[in-house]
Write a structure and sequence with these properties.
Helix content of chain A: 25-40%
Distance between the termini of chain A: 42 Å
Number of helices of chain A: 10
Structural class of chain A: alpha/beta
Largest interface: A-B, 51 and 26 residues
CATH topology of the largest domain in chain A: Rossmann fold
Largest sheet of chain B: 5 strands, mixed
Radius of gyration of chain A: 19 Å
Mean pLDDT of chain A: 92
Number of helices of chain B: 2
CATH topology of chain B: Ubiquitin-like (UB roll)
CATH class of the largest domain in chain A: Alpha Beta
Largest sheet of chain A: 6 strands, mixed
CATH architecture of chain B: Roll
Low-confidence stretches of chain B: none
Oligomer: heterodimer
Structural class of chain B: alpha+beta
Shape of chain A: globular
Number of strands of chain A: 9
Order of helices and strands of chain B: EEHHEEEEE
Strand content of chain A: 15-25%
CATH architecture of the largest domain in chain A: 3-Layer(aba) Sandwich
CATH superfamily of chain B: Beta-grasp domain
Mean pLDDT of chain B: 88
Number of domains of chain A: 2
Strand content of chain B: 25-35%
Distance between the termini of chain B: 38 Å
Radius of gyration of chain B: 12 Å
Helix content of chain B: 10-25%
CATH class of chain B: Alpha Beta
Order of helices and strands of chain A: EEHEHEHEHHEHEHEHHEH
Chain lengths: 316, 91
């Protein structure tokens, strides 16, 4: 029997088509309109639902992923949670390699969706999780690794869904701002926007890692995700944890939006870019909502104290 | 003088020093002054005269690759940040 008109067939089909809201109080002056795409409204609460669905669909279609086969992925949270939800619906066991210094909410959510968790050393950040997942995948050929950092289905999901939604919601867009993680969002949305509006600027907000997180990296390990097409970017800003927390608090106070830390960073960059414009429209993508960060006390605690603590953790 | 912040991974080349004052009106001039003071940094930050793909260079918070690259101008109050490229976080 087909689903009732107005209902989707399944939770997975409800991914995407997220709201766009104007941030009129955060806009720095009257000439510029600032809008936010609320990706926290996806089924598991983040933009990663889009790429998890796309990576699993394309792997099933190509035969790279067989029915019932186990999935392994390095993720510091959101991608893992999305894969776990979709995997549990489709009958794939999911194993996530995650740094051991993220927030407890992520571990709880992964377990709720029946994922198995393998912890990697937190001080090594995402690079450490990637390395461990690659070792595990090499040692056990029964595992399928979508590998969001190198999977073209990641940027393609944004080129085919997020980008067109933004063009429909804000056709006059001049600047697109998003956080830089795998680079999939910026690359995919950027390609879509530039095809339709060649003058659009694509701007990355990148986390400034704390000294502790930086400390264990060697240059030889320097890593540029294969899915990141740097030619799509027009500007790239570093955002420290303090400015990201200030951005996240302003989102809540001025606009009533309860968002995660990377969203705070993206908003900080969007406001800065908007301030330098005389007129136009800026769209900022808010990758997740604040739920997974509640235990970190980002909204209420003293900024200096938080800054010290965030030095050694990995929240976005 | 501008300031260059040295990431932990490069401090073995600076005797552990975290930040260094340098002279110059562009990123290239500032780096030349830096390499004069700490010659071992040159091969770690550049490849054949270009910035290594695995090093990102920022003036204050802005990546110079998307400005004028090594010719990006700098002022006395500016900070140059060197960072190894790395995978992003929670996404």
């Amino acid at each position: 029997m087909p689903a009732t008109v107005g209902a989707t067939s399944d939770l997975v089909a409800a991914i995407g088509n997220t709201p766009m809201v104007e941030l009129s109080r955060l806009a720095p002056h009257d000439g510029v309109r600032l809008y936010a795409k609320l990706e926290g409204n996806n089924p598991t609460g983040s933009v990663k639902d889009r790429i998890a669905r796309a990576m699993i669909d394309s792997a099933l279609a190509s035969g790279a992923l067989r029915p019932g086969q186990a999935i392994l992925e390095p993720s510091s949270g959101n991608t893992g949670i999305s894969l776990a939800m979709i995997g549990s619906r489709l009958g794939h066991p999911v194993r996530i390699v995650m740094p051991d210094n993220t927030t407890p909410e992520r571990e709880q959510l992964l377990r709720l969706f029946s994922a198995e968790i393998v912890f990697s050393p937190g001080a090594e950040g995402s690079n450490g999780a990637i390395r461990l997942a690659q070792e595990l995948a090499r040692a056990d050929s029964s595992l399928f690794m979508p590998y969001q950092y190198g999977n073209e289905a990641n940027p393609r999901a944004h080129e085919e869904t997020t980008g067109p939604e933004i063009l429909e919601q804000v056709p006059e867009i001049d600047v697109f701002v998003a956080g830089l993680g795998t680079g999939g969002t910026l690359t995919g949305v950027g390609r879509c926007l530039k095809r339709s509006r060649p003058g659009v600027r694509v701007v990355a907000a990148e986390p400034l890692p704390g000294e502790q997180v930086q400390g264990l990296r060697s240059l030889e390990e320097g890593f540029v995700p294969p899915v990141l097409d740097e030619s799509v970017l027009d500007d790239r800003f570093l955002v420290n944890n303090r400015d990201a927390v200030v951005g996240l608090r302003r989102l809540l106070r001025d606009e009533g939006i309860f968002a995660g830390l990377s969203s705070g960073a993206a908003v900080a960059v969007a406001v800065r870019v908007a301030r330098e414009m005389t007129a136009g429209s800026v769209v900022v993508l808010l990758a997740d909502a604040g739920w997974k960060y509640l235990s970190a006390g980002l909204w209420g605690r003293d900024l200096d104290e938080l800054e010290d603590e965030l030095e050694g953790s990995l929240l976005w | 003088m501008s300031t260059v912040r040295i990431p932990p991974v490069l401090r073995e080349n600076t005797g552990g020093v975290r930040s260094i004052d340098v002279a110059g009106g562009t990123v290239a001039e500032a780096l030349a002054d830096l390499f004069g003071k700490h010659p071992a940094l040159r091969d770690r930050v550049t490849e054949e005269g270009e910035l290594s793909r695995f090093i990102n260079v920022y003036v204050n918070d802005r990546d110079v690759r998307y400005r004028e690259g090594l010719e990006t101008t700098i002022g006395a109050d500016d900070t140059i940040i060197l960072l190894p490229a790395m995978a992003g976080g929670a996404r």
